[in-house]
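Example S7 (structure tokens).
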């Protein structure tokens, strides 16, 4: 089960390389583009709120895949007051909390938890795929008593973990600071570092002011940089985008010449090899692409909502291999 880990506070030893002016220009451009998509001003007022996404591209694939989500604190809450949480709790014989006690605390602290679900009921009433799907679609987010977190992958099924944003966030119900814990969830961006070089995280909503979005983006970048390997040294780029917009760059690392690996070239010849084509068996240049011009092209609605970017070229390659295998099987039959 994926637990969440709070991001460490920005370190004074890691100065930011992000220019807030660049972020502000990108935010204004995205908001202007969004407004232009609605011809009738009245329709814009009725349009649903939309997330703003920060796309992280690393220079190298992380050495080890991580399932746990990082909580990145944001100055302006990402989730609205209308967010509906479902809390899954332990109702076993060893549990120290009853349903009445839980409901009373929720009411006392005015927590946005609209449903409390017993672990026993989850086991008995949500066995089928359809029941789990309906549960997942009924709430905006899920919380779970941290003591039962290891049991949830088997009980909730793959669809909850495929859509990473729906993975229940662990909370410690034995502590009295329920409101503080829930507020931290509401006020944080959830970062799931993917097994590839690209990850995406929700950082703001279009219903916020432009300045609030800028503040959230800057805070998210600072928090993410403290998490990734080598900090700024491991970051290739940051892009900002809406669901259907282009991805606008807000930070681009300067190409590192040491990452350009040249094979089959000796001594002073390395200095001459720039734009020349390498002929036949003289060697090969392994290129490192730094300008992420196609970031927007590798994003779709499902991938954005899940919080993880999938490499579409890899997916196409796998699909092609599968189709080829099916054709071979049919021909053999």
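Recovered sequence:
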């Amino acid at each position: 089960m994926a637990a969440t880990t709070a991001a460490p506070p920005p370190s004074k030893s890691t100065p930011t390389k992000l220019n807030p002016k660049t972020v502000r220009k990108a935010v204004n451009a995205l908001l202007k583009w969004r407004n232009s998509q609605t011809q009738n001003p009245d329709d814009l007022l009725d349009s649903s709120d939309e997330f703003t996404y920060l796309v992280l591209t690393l220079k190298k694939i992380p050495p080890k895949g991580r399932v746990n989500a990082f909580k990145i604190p944001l100055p302006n809450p990402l989730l609205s007051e209308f967010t509906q949480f479902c809390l899954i709790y332990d109702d076993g014989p060893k549990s120290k909390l009853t349903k009445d006690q839980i409901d009373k605390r929720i009411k006392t602290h005015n927590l946005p938890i609209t449903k409390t679900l017993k672990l026993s009921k989850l086991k008995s009433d949500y066995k089928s795929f359809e029941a789990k799907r309906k549960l997942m679609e009924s709430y905006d987010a899920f919380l779970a008593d941290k003591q039962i977190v290891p049991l949830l992958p088997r009980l909730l099924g793959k669809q909850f973990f495929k859509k990473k944003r729906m993975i229940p966030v662990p909370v410690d119900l034995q502590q009295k600071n329920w409101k503080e814990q829930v507020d931290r969830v509401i006020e944080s961006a959830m970062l799931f570092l993917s097994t590839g070089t690209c990850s995406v995280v929700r950082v703001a909503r279009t219903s916020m002011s432009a300045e609030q979005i800028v503040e959230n983006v800057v805070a998210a970048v600072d928090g993410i940089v403290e998490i990734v390997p080598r900090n700024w040294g491991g970051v290739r780029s940051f892009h900002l985008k809406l669901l259907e917009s282009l991805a606008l760059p807000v930070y681009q690392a300067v190409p590192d010449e040491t990452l350009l690996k040249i094979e089959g070239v000796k001594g002073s010849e390395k200095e001459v090899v720039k734009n020349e084509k390498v002929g036949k068996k003289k060697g090969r240049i392994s290129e490192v692409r730094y300008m992420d011009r196609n970031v927007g092209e590798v994003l779709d609605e499902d991938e954005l909502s899940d919080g993880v970017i999938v490499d579409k070229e890899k997916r196409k390659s796998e699909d092609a291999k599968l189709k080829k295998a099916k054709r071979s099987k049919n021909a053999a039959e």
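Notes on this example. Residues 312-332 form the longest helix (21 residues).
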